Amino acid sequence: MMASFFDQFASPSFFGVPLIAVAIALPWVLFPTPPSRWVNNRLITIQTWFINRFTNQLMMPLNVGGHKWALLLASLMVFLITINMLGLLPYTFTPTTQLSLNMGFAVPLWLATVIIGMRNQPTVALGHLLPEGTPIPLIPVLIIIETISLFIRPLALGVRLTANLTAGHLLIQLIATAVFVLLPMMPTVAILTAAVLFLLTLLEVAVAMIQAYVFVLLLSLYLQENV
Questions:
Q1: 99 closest CA partner among 33, 40, 165
Q2: Phi and psi of 186, rounded to 5°?
Q3: What average pLDDT does the segment 202-221 reach?
Q4: Quick one: how far is CA 220 from the chain centroid?
Q5: Which of 82, 95, 203, 224 stands 20 to 30 A from 188 (CA)?
Q6: 20 near 93, Cβ under 8 Å?
Q7: What is the pTM (predicted TM-score) of this model?
């Protein structure tokens, strides 16, 4: 029984073709394309307003050099939100529950911010490894600790997104299983459990959006340190 709970996180395949590629490509098909007309419909207007507000909020702490990342970070934010939300639908697969995919996003983007810092301002980038005013005996220890914390950043990005989505999906499946088991024996308890399941689903919708925002926000903070 316990093994079956984790079967939902296995990457499905159809005739030997992994469907994770379809799940990754699907979000871009769902977004409406802005027409050539001057007047847009309500859906495109809301989409444009949301992306503009998010981009302004994200780029506000960054200088002009960091604004080149606006398109990349905004696209990543919309992509992660869409994948996380689609994964809450029944009989769907959530690619962001796979640590390999999240690390594939986190490591290259984190490495790009580090390379930018080393190329543009190497003194400031290396200065983050040693806080100002550190006592001389603690300098070697602090350099080692800060270096380890620097290399843990992409791992923390990927594990945070994976763990939060995996835990939410497991809770939903466990409570849904409890509802089906209790329904013939204790209908009242089953109804109360179903109410808890509904509230948990609403919470998971919020978590799906918040975790995508946190992922991109932390990347922008790493970028802010290096531009």
A1: 165
A2: -135, 85
A3: 92
A4: 13
A5: 203
A6: yes
A7: 0.84
